[in-house]
# Entry
Amino acid sequence: MNRLVPEPLKEVKYHREILISSSGNAGGYIELGDSECGSGCQAFLVIFILIFSSPFAGLFYWGVKRTRKLREDQDKMRKEKEEKLREKKNIEKATTKFEKLEKDIAEKYKKICQETIYENRYALQTERKKFLTKDSYGRTIDIGWESWENLKGDKPTAINYFWENILKVELKNSFENIDYPKIIVNDHGLRKEFSYNLDWAKYCFAKINFGKGIFTYYEATDSWIIDEINKVCDEMQDITSQFGDTSSMDGVQYEQYCKNILEDAGWEVEDTPITGDQGVDLIASIEDLRVCIQCKCFTKAVGNKAVQEVSTGMIHWNGTHAVVVATNGFTKSAKTLAASAKVILTSDTELENLENLVL
# Structure
């Protein structure tokens, strides 16, 4: 049997197989072309690539997904950080604005208090002289200036009366239209509710000036007001004390005392005769004003008689105004008569301000 011999230059692929002839002898080769193994090889190659590359494909997909998630998380964190930064800036801006408002309110509160106290300094000094007395041993006794101890019934102290009827009214009018926080929470989480605008203004004043919190501001502010009133009264007392101490003066000395105060304030003052004065002790003149004055250095309140005398004496001396000056105030009846007779009732502490009293 002849063997198949491949052509030398022919590029073929061979697959050796045993050829069995009809006679049973083995031997020979058979030729297998590209068309017979190509599709199978390609399928095997594809399957091999898929099997080999599938773990790497999974890792690549996981990597892409992980990268995308990281970017999303980073973007989210960046946005949250930017939002917190904006919120922080807004809080700082609001806090700065609120702190400035508190300072402005505190300054306004202080200014109104000081101006109102100064405007009423003469009346306050008169009240203090009336309610701060001395006993036989020279000790100062408070019978109603600051202390409630010696007051009868439900009468207010002189300072409390001034606060309720003068200073508080002025402050309420000044702060009537301000927008104030209804609730404040301190650093310890404690809350304070403000029922009205003046309450918050007092808090601002105490916080800025004394560093007081939401539960200590009221007492601090009230103490400051009392100290401020007493300071102004002390200044007034220092001014008038240079002319003498009225507590030990007689009638003639007190007249001279009042005369000195008026002359120091710019008035031209003349004395009336000791006898036949017609109820007028001094005549004070400035420009077209001619004020007839009766001076009373009494330990008790002055009654109607002095009002009646100076009223008729003004006519006798051709005066423009009638004034009674007293060391210890006037009775209720005298005040009523003076109002109808247009007689001015005052104290020696207010004489410096006589021009404003008569105009």
Remarks:
- The first strand starts at residue 13 and ends at 15.
- The CA atoms of residues 4 and 28 lie 6 Å apart.
